[in-house]
Amino acid sequence: MKETKEMYILGIESSCDETSASIVKNGTEEIATVISSQIDIHKNYGGVVPEIASRHHVKNITIVLEECLQRANMTMDQIDAIAITYGPGLIGSLLIGLEAAKTLSFIYNKPLIPVHHIAGHIYANSLVRPFQFPLLALVVSGGHTEIIEMTNHYKFNKLGGTLDDAIGECYDKVARVIGLEYPGGKKLDKLAQLEKCTYQLPIPLHDDSYNFSFSGLKSAVINLAHNEEQRGRELNKEDLAASFEKVAIESVINKVKKAVIDKKIKYLIVAGGVAANQRLRKEIEKLGSEMNIEISIPPMKYCTDNATMIAAAGYYAYLDGRRADLSLNSKSQDKLV
Ligand code: KG4
Ligand code: ZN
User: Fold this and answer.
1) In terms of domains, do 85 and 139 share one?
2) What mean pLDDT is predicted for residues 223-245?
3) Which of 104, 158, 246, 321 falls between 20 and 30 A from 171, CA-CA?
């Protein structure tokens, strides 16, 4: 084993509909990444079909791994450890990446590092610049909405989270009601930039906690759309998208602001697929200058699922002493904290 000062980690991610492999040096420097996305396949069904996703991971995984090594101009002998997303996610999808990682670990005798998918999203930020502690991580994804405090690398403390739907899930459901094709979150965001907020929607869980709630907002949008239809009135989709987005993002910003003040935080990072949201990015930047705190939002390519963030998180997990053996299993549900 080389010094940890120069460590090349091969990351593997297959928790949903992206098969990805990446090599990252010292948790911060991306050497090569390959992502094979299945969006075009699943959009025919209006969402990810787990069985189909697993089959495509099987087809893609060796190609993606070989291409990643090729792009990096490296062989497995030059890799120091393998970081794998063990969960949460679709169990069939997770298992394909996990089996590939375990096989490589066994054949090439490399340490296996288990990485939680959300730790991966958080560490996407370490590819941009080093963390400063204590920090707050706002996690906004298809399956999670959480505010996490970090006092050091791999030391996570959850301050609050969603009581029901995740924000990304809510975006996707509202997008479907508006009639947008899967994956709807990104399209809804685009539509929202076109119009005014003319529809009145409730700000979710406007209280003193660090928690979120999105199911009431989702139901309010669904009811509003049905009522307009029943009255024979045409729904202004752009306005509804803008009205929804305003309230959803405002609710997130309110809670983050409270946590920043309460915890006297100077460094805030944003993580997960919804970090790609234009309004959220703008509002977080605004919050940063208002409160005089440093902000880190990953570039778009690190917001969606990728193995680069898994390899980056894997480095810090390795330094934290985290190792797995061949008995490691995938977990469809697993809490980071
Ligand atoms: O992080 P991610 O891959 O999901 C989990 O790991 O759970 O994020 C996917 C989620 C989806 O719900 C997608 O609709 C949402 O992120 N998303 C967006 C945007 N781009 C992706 N939501 C709002 N605005 C966007 N621009
Ligand atoms: Zn994700």
Assistant:
1) no
2) 94
3) 158
Q: Does ligand 1 lie within 6 Å of residue 305's CB atom? A: yes
List C-alpha distances in Å: 136 to 49, 157, 158, 253, 289.
34, 9, 10, 13, 16
Exposure letters 266-277 (e unless 16+ CB within 10 A, then b): ebbbbbbbbbbb
Contacts of 22 (CB under 8 A, 6+ apart): 10, 11, 13, 30, 31, 32, 33, 34, 68, 306, 307, 308, 310, 311
Residue 75 neighbours by CB under 8 Å, 6+ apart: 69
Assess whether pLDDT exceeds 70 at residue 230. yes
Assess whether 146 and 122 both reside in one domain: no
**Could you tell me the residue range of the domain that residue 212 belongs to?**
133-297
Judge contact between 310 and 85, C-beta under 8 A: yes
pLDDT attached to residue 182? 86
Same domain for 171 and 53, yes or no, is no
**Entry pTM:** 0.96
Ligand 1 binding pocket includes 183 (Cβ within 6 Å): yes
Residues 293 and 160 in one domain: yes
CATH number at residue 241: 3.30.420.40
DSSP for 102-170, written as a single string: HHHHHHHT--EEEEEHHHHHHHGGGGTS---SSEEEEEESSS-EEEEEEEETTEEEEEEEBSSS-HHHH
| Torsions phi, psi for 160 (to 5 deg) | -175, 170
pLDDT, residue 3, reads: 46
Per-residue pLDDT reduced to its tens digit, 61-105:
999 999 999 999 999 999 999 999 999 999 999 999 999 999 999
Minimum-distance ligand 1 atom for the alpha carbon of 280: 24
In a domain, 3, yes or no: no
Among 35, 171, 310, the mutation site with the greatest number of ligand 1 atoms within 8 A of its Cβ is 171
